[in-house]
Design brief:
heterotrimer; A mainly alpha; B alpha+beta; C alpha/beta; B: alpha+beta; 3 domains; six-stranded antiparallel β-sheet; four-stranded antiparallel β-sheet; 10 strands; about 10% strand; disordered C terminus; C: alpha/beta; Glutaredoxin; 5 helices; 7 strands; about 40% helix
């Protein structure tokens, strides 16, 4: 047990200092990275724009970079993309009538499991 | 000439598979021992023919015989020899051939296995016969839709070359390992069906468990290797993308894991027989579904290297035949089991509960993967379901799963719940304490989820160690596989939690001599040079990494342009130890010796692959160290 | 009955997979349909004069996004020229030259003919992003108020023009 705790003590974790070199602060960089991983590259086969080297992906990365630099937040950037490219561009499906089942399925499955376990007599 | 011999060998294998299937049916009145001898022979002939066919293809690859279409498309004279061999399974046709070989190979190991008792002869014959039918359909599939020996005329002077993504040691061995896992699930599938046909035989579970562990090992290894490859080769430093192809391998893995546990109960206690049977059917069906998704191009993905509606249709028909047929047989023949009377927190219940959670995880992955298809057909709506969805919903089954995995270590067969809670409470409190201290005091507090993840990782690791601490030396080896598998799981959870909570990623521009600080590490771009490889040219950067002004390493990330294909490939520069990964990928040339760079600091990332490695060790101990033990115990 | 549940689930899945195999992949629907064209201010190709979105109002028109590096545009080009010469139809085609070089674009038009009544150049691709363009060629049908009525993805030809676009033009003119 001690060993596991020790391992953590040895790990160097620090808050990232703001760097003069970059245009984005650490928080903005985190926001930017988070967004580009959740935006689908439309001309690629199932890649986010973070992973893709396609021209469109580069353009969109650049656009998002600038918007984050200007201080826009995640929701604003995402709705900017959604207004132009539709739901398909976001890897996080929005919660609406046609995706109720998708989003509620984990809860639905949990309820089904409980019902089944009751029926076969575990409870 | 050689390709024609390969073709002939495929037809030999087809005939052998057909006979293997027919002999198992009770069409002819043949003596049972003769039937057994014949079916073993044909299993062996089938396997040898396919093996020799692969050798023929390999021979043609090594001799650059571009009159064979498959070779013209996937090789050229400049390809290094090891990759000419790996190119055998570098595209659709050849990888099916490999798949087929592994299937027939597993068939041979079953045919010549000594695990079967005398009263299980029919179980063996039926399962081999079913495997014969599976082989038969896949050989037909190869011959009709995906013949690797097809010739072209006129013969091109030069081949097109292997997909550069595949020119990498890890990815060269990744498909054989993953396929061995996929097709290995055909064995428990065949055994489960055979057990439905031979109602008096009860030992299928024990036999099926060995082969399930077998293919589980390969699946674990294959998935981990694929994730590792994606990490350093796709150039962006992610390790899991929830890509349909990854999901296609994750689903059978989850169900196979459930199957291993369910078979323990069926073997030892005679319970959950129909659950185990159903799981065996589902596990193999998911392997087939995976093949369908990858090969048909229904879900477009980075990994789909080949797609064709005709092939998709053929695989779909196979799914209909095997899954549909098996479920029918299950509905007709499965004995009605006596109503269960389980103690809520007995070992039986906990195993059942965990299997249900594993299956629901697989179910959620399936819903997420197929939902865009459904919506497009039903509603003409296009949506994407990706990492944000999966990372969220997978928590619903996984958090209770990890809690119960730990609890199960305190449980006894038919044990009482109150005792269990008493016994586990001390360890539970300890885990919570450690998790809280680590996440609040030692690390900086991130999110509640990070804290929960840390607590569960600690809980899983400690409870995984318990069987080793408590047991006497004699039963130490017996408990080792389970302990290792669970410790591995805990370590993986720890790695995932820490990496995703405390990792830092930076995209930035760097000029020569400039540096950039990520976390407490300083990345300094020294220079960028040109390099020429055997079949590509590359830009190679030299990046020095400093920690507290001490140089800790130099990495050389590359950007390669292969002669045959235009898009450039990234080779990341990685400086890693067990505690952290420092990752540098070269971006774009912005002119004036300024480049965009992708920099990452990922703490404990290695644990994500160390965990599966330890799980595999556990499985290996079970297969190779315990076998002699149990055999001596029997005699 | 309970035993049949797995079969029922399987059948549902099977039908889904079978249908998805035969129904061709749908084009990405554009969320801009029914909305005003995005605002922009771009240079005319090879000239210093700027054109804004307001200059496009007043006519039912096609907006075609193209580039010389785009293979689909080469396939489509002859049909565009043919369309521009069609006196009965008489529909202006406005070109947006996307992420391209002016000299290459001008040469291409001299060699292949110029079907466009106006050509705007979008070298950085910002306006294309506002139009939700992801792969050239893409063609938008707008009415005289600047409302987008239809988006065609990929090369246009006689067949898909007469099937998808022409009826909409006719309806708009009524």
């Amino acid at each position: 047990m001690k060993r596991i705790a020790l391992m953590f003590l040895l790990l160097p974790f620090q808050v990232v200092p703001d760097d003069l070199n970059t245009n984005l602060t650490a928080t903005q960089q985190e926001l930017y990275q988070g967004i580009i991983q959740e935006v689908r590259c439309l001309v690629c086969q199932n890649q986010s724009i973070a992973e893709s080297n396609a021209e469109l992906a580069k353009d969109l990365r650049e656009e998002i970079f600038q918007q984050v630099e200007q201080g826009r937040n995640e929701a604003q950037v995402k709705s900017y993309l959604q207004e132009r490219y539709g739901d398909f561009v976001l890897y996080e499906p929005s919660f609406k009538q046609s995706t109720y089942f998708l989003w509620l399925s984990p809860i639905l499955i949990l309820i089904l499991i409980l019902g089944w376990l009751r029926k076969i007599g575990v409870f | 000439m050689i390709p024609e011999i390969g073709q002939l060998l495929m037809i030999t294998a087809l005939a052998a598979a057909l006979l293997q299937f027919l002999i198992g049916l009770k069409l002819f009145t043949v003596d049972q021992s003769l039937r057994m001898i014949l079916i073993k022979r044909f299993t062996l002939i089938q396997c040898l023919s396919i093996f020799l066919a692969i050798c023929c293809l390999g021979y043609s690859f090594l001799n650059d015989d571009f009159s064979v279409l498959y070779i013209a498309l996937n090789s050229n004279t400049n390809l290094p020899v090891p990759y000419k061999i790996a190119a055998i399974w570098g595209a659709h046709e050849g990888s099916l051939l490999l798949w087929m070989f592994l299937l027939s190979f597993w068939g041979v190991t079953l045919a010549f296995s000594k695990k079967f008792n005398d009263q299980d002869k029919m179980l063996k014959i039926y399962s081999l016969s079913i495997l014969g039918l599976v082989s038969l359909s896949f050989i037909l599939f190869i011959i009709y839709t995906s013949n690797p020996f097809e010739r072209i005329f006129p013969m091109p002077d030069q081949g097109r070359g292997l997909n550069p993504l595949l020119q990498d040691p890890a990815l060269a061995i990744h498909p054989p390992i993953l396929y061995a896992g996929y097709v290995g699930l055909a064995i428990p599938f065949a055994l489960a069906l055979a057990s439905l046909l031979t109602p008096h035989s009860s030992s299928w579970a024990g036999i099926a468990r060995i082969w399930t562990i077998n293919s589980w090992l390969f699946l674990t290894g294959g998935i981990a290797l694929g994730s590792w490859w994606a990490y350093y080769e796709l150039g962006w430093g992610g390790w899991w993308f929830w890509d349909p192809v990854e999901n296609a391998s994750l689903m059978p893995w989850l169900v196979a894991t459930a199957l291993v546990h369910s078979l323990i109960v069926t073997e030892k206690k005679g319970l959950f027989n129909s659950f185990s049977t159903l799981l065996a059917i589902i596990a193999f069906s998911l392997s087939l579904l995976g093949t369908f998704l990858v090969r048909s191009g229904v879900l477009i993905s980075v990994h789909s290297f080949a797609s064709d509606p005709e092939r998709g249709l053929f695989i779909l028909m196979l799914i209909g035949l095997f899954t549909g047929g098996a479920l029918m047989l299950f509905a007709l023949k499965q004995k009605r089991s006596a109503p269960l009377k389980l103690e809520l927190l007995s070992r039986e219940s906990l195993l059942l509960l965990n299997n249900v959670f594993l299956c629901s995880a697989a179910g959620l992955v399936m819903i997420g993967t197929l939902y865009p298809l459904v919506l497009e057909l039903v509603n003409s709506e296009k949506i994407s379901v990706g990492p944000p969805y999966f990372n969220f919903v997978i928590l619903f089954p996984c958090i209770p799963l990890l809690i119960f995995v730990g609890l199960a270590m305190f449980s006894a067969w038919n044990g009482k719940g109150s005792k269990l809670l008493l016994r586990s409470s001390r360890v539970a409190l300890l885990s919570i304490l450690i998790g809280l201290v680590v996440s609040l005091l030692i690390l900086s507090y991130d999110t509640p989820l990070t804290t929960i993840g840390l607590i569960l990782a600690v809980w899983t690791i400690i409870t995984g160690c318990l069987p080793l601490i408590r047991s006497r030396t004699s039963s130490l080896v017996k408990n080792l596989p389970m302990a290792l598998a669970h410790i591995g799981l805990g370590i993986m959870v720890l790695g995932i939690t820490v990496t995703s909570s405390y990792g830092i990623t930076f995209d930035d521009t760097l000029g020569f001599g400039q540096s950039k600080t990520v976390g407490e590490y300083e990345f300094k771009l020294i220079t960028i040079n040109d390099r020429t490889g055997p079949n590509y040219t590359a830009k190679v950067a030299m990046v020095e990494i400093y920690s507290e002004n001490q140089k800790i390493g130099t990495v050389f990330p590359e950007k390669r342009v292969y002669d045959t294909t235009s898009p450039s490939m990234t080779e990341a520069g990685i400086e890693a130890n067990l505690f952290r990964d420092l990752f540098v990928a070269l971006g774009e040339d912005l002119g004036g010796d300024i480049w965009s760079m992708h920099l990452q600091y990922k703490p404990l990332l290695r644990l994500i692959w160390l965990g599966p490695f330890i799980m595999i060790l556990g499985g290996l101990v079970r297969l190779f160290l315990l076998k002699p033990l149990s055999e001596t115990a029997n005699s | 009955m309970k035993r049949l549940l797995p079969i029922a689930i399987f059948l549902g899945l099977f039908i889904l997979l079978a249908r998805s195999l035969f129904v061709p992949q749908m084009d990405l629907p554009s969320p801009l349909i029914g909305k005003q064209i995005p605002s922009f201010s771009l240079n005319e190709l090879g000239k210093s004069s700027t054109v804004t979105h307001q200059d496009l109002l007043g006519d039912i028109a096609l907006i075609n996004i193209w580039a010389t590096w785009c293979v689909g545009c080469e396939i489509e080009h002859d049909f565009l020229v043919e369309l521009s010469l069609d006196q009965d139809l008489d529909i202006p085609i406005i070109g947006i030259n996307w992420k391209d070089r002016d000299d290459l674009a001008t040469r291409w038009l001299i060699q292949k003919g110029n079907p466009y009544s106006k050509i705007l150049s979008d070298p950085i691709g910002n306006t294309a992003i506002d139009f939700g363009v992801y792969g050239a060629p893409e063609t938008f049908l707008i009415d005289d108020q600047g409302i987008i009525h239809y988006k065609h993805i990929g090369p246009m030809d006689r067949q898909n023009f007469e099937q998808d676009i022409l009826p909409r033009i006719v309806a708009l003119r009524k």
